[in-house]
From TrEMBL:
This is Integral membrane protein. Keywords: Membrane, Transmembrane, Transmembrane helix. The lineage of its organism: Bacteria, Bacillati, Actinomycetota, Actinomycetes, Kitasatosporales. It comes from Streptomyces kurssanovii. It comes from the Bacteria. The chain crosses the membrane at residues 7-31, 66-87, 120-136.
């Protein structure tokens, strides 16, 4: 396995691990709220009417909204999908652009600073691995081009 593929596989593993871990912990700690969605109907998880009945909001309704935004409405699902896409592209030998790694690293760094302590900083590592893989791919492409130039 070449170095770029190995770096991308590590990056994708971190992404999938963070997203899956986030959803798993939420399921453990907020099972009552999630189970309530099935009882009331999934469409009732977070009401669509903003500020309707704001004066009589209950702790339970606020907890219900927090559970939604910490679960299916959070970064976890897109992060898992990005990790799976990165794994797939690495397997096909397709380079993931460096801008994706920079964006992921910046987003996770800001999230980690705002929400300390958190595993957000592991996402910075994942983004850095994507950037390193993209740079190694560029270097190997340039070296291959130089080798094939006519003398």
């Amino acid at each position: 396995m070449n170095a770029e593929k190995r770096l991308l596989r590590w990056a994708s593993g971190i992404m999938v691990g963070l997203g899956t871990g986030h959803l798993s912990l939420l399921t453990l700690f907020a099972w009552g709220d999630i189970n309530g969605w099935a009882e009331r109907g999934v469409w009732a998880a977070v009401p669509l009417a903003p500020n309707e009945g704001a004066a009589d909001r209950t702790v339970e309704s606020l907890q219900n909204e927090v559970t939604f935004w910490a679960g299916p409405g959070s970064f976890a699902v897109p992060l898992i999908l990005l990790g799976c896409l990165t794994w797939h592209l690495a397997g096909r030998g397709v380079a993931v652009p460096a801008w994706a790694g920079w964006g992921l690293a910046a987003w996770c760094f800001v999230g980690g600073v705002l929400l300390v302590p958190s595993p957000y900083f592991a996402g910075v590592v994942s983004g850095a691995l994507v950037v390193l893989a993209a740079r190694q791919e560029d270097r190997s492409r340039k070296a291959h081009t130089r080798e094939n130039e006519p003398v």
